[in-house]
């Protein structure tokens, strides 16, 4: 059984009442991958905005493996120290990583964030020398529209992320760079300029799915994200 671990920030953990792109990804894998698979991770909850804490189990679709390693307000800086134990204890085969927005917005510049990516990869490989990884660049968000210096940092980091993935890629533990979600529009694919709605969830899941299909021949074409349907 292939074990996928979603790793991310608020766009990955999701909040109470949401499906999350994790659900869309699991649904796609079950429907197109010729073999058993599941989602794994040390956490299961959604973020409760009223409690301001990750305490909710109120998924819009509860009937799927809810495990993940994601946190509201967490980035590469926060996940690098955690990933080794998470990979080891959950026996993950593939990491689906969407991080960077929080780092660049509050903690580190592009170069420092890229250095934390390298630490993350090293720690994951120390736990499992054969771990596979798919990395999603920081995708379009409302702050990048209104804050030019931040937008420049996002562009710079995405360039460094692609270089880092290429530098660290190796046959035993391959790293794929996913392309940004096709036609991602913050007005129609998010509910607040950053966090994905149903359409955005499909597009993020589709970006990961297409990277694995094209890079590793895993699964079939992801079509739902183009329609943005539930």
UniProtKB/TrEMBL annotation:
Annotated Gene3D superfamilies: SGNH hydrolase (3.40.50.1110)
Entries under Pfam families matching the protein: Lipase_GDSL_2 (PF13472)
Highest taxon in the source lineage: Bacteria
Stretches assigned to the SGNH hydrolase-type esterase domain: 7-201
Transmembrane segments: none
PANTHER family, alphabetized: GDSL-LIKE LIPASE/ACYLHYDROLASE, PUTATIVE (AFU_ORTHOLOGUE AFUA_2G00820)-RELATED, GDSL-LIKE LIPASE_ACYLHYDROLASE, PUTATIVE (AFU_ORTHOLOGUE AFUA_2G00820)-RELATED
Protein name: GDSL-type esterase/lipase family protein
